[in-house]
Amino acid sequence: MEILAFGVQADEKPMLEKAFAGHHGIRCLDMFLNEDTAPIAVGHEVISSSVNADLGSNVLKMLASGGTRMIAQRSTGFNNIDLAVAERLGLTVARVSYYSPYSVAEFAWTLAMAVNRRIVRASTRTRDFDFRLDGLMGRDMHGRTAGVLGTGKIGEAFARIAHGFGMRLLGWDIAENPACVNLGMEYVSKERLLAESDLITLHVPLLPATQHLIDAAALKSMKDDAILVNSSRGGLIDTAALVDELRAGRFTGVGLDVYEAEAGLFFLDKSLQAIEDDTLARLVTFPNVLVTSHQAYYTEDAVTQIVQTTLGNVQDYFAGRRSENVLVPRS
Hints:
Keywords: NAD, Oxidoreductase. By secondary structure, the chain is of the alpha/beta class.
């Protein structure tokens, strides 16, 4: 049985091929799954998708009509999949419900420290043999306040690092994490967290209730010199409103590994093309903003877990087993 995997990164391909060897054949494509590429899946009972795949109603119907019966998504997030349509079409859908939380938490800290200590600007200068320190002054994290929105496994890992820096911890979530409480975290309202935090990091899923969790009002309530980091989902922040605040000269730094309109941009080489997204084009021009292309999860440890779990999901499908990774069970 050949599995067709869409949106496979160059570093990921040998890991997938090695994991599936002896179990199933796998054909890896670097192109993303969408309406244009869905016809390639004809005749493949099982396909694997990436987080930026378009698995809306039209694509799902195309897959189902071509013989696909199972979708194994290689990510935790699944907001790109119309689960109701998948269930109606009899498609089994599974995801990777867990992988190394340290990969994302550590990268969130990388973004925070990079914008705080002006690392990109400093590196660019020294490559031009400009060794001045003007405009490179940062701040100690020790003694300042970290606000963690979402204190699950990733938020907890971020909080442990913040605790190591000697920071005061504020948290916001639907339920308290005892491990975070043991670190000294105080759970407060979102409004208080935003108003008091020097560093704000987002680690919540993208749901209808969290769409634009950080909207214009939330941004205005933050300290003028706050640092904002998002390594979760782009739709959590109203990017247009963020640009307005940045134009007003607010925030010490903003680190974004995700962007709400990243589909069709991130993971692709657009260096020789004009970027039609005016909001993104404006965003990357601010000297206190660092944008990366959804790479927080991209460590050898995390990708190994993702690949192994994807293989397990495929094997479970053929064996008729159901695990916590299944979003739409086999009918």
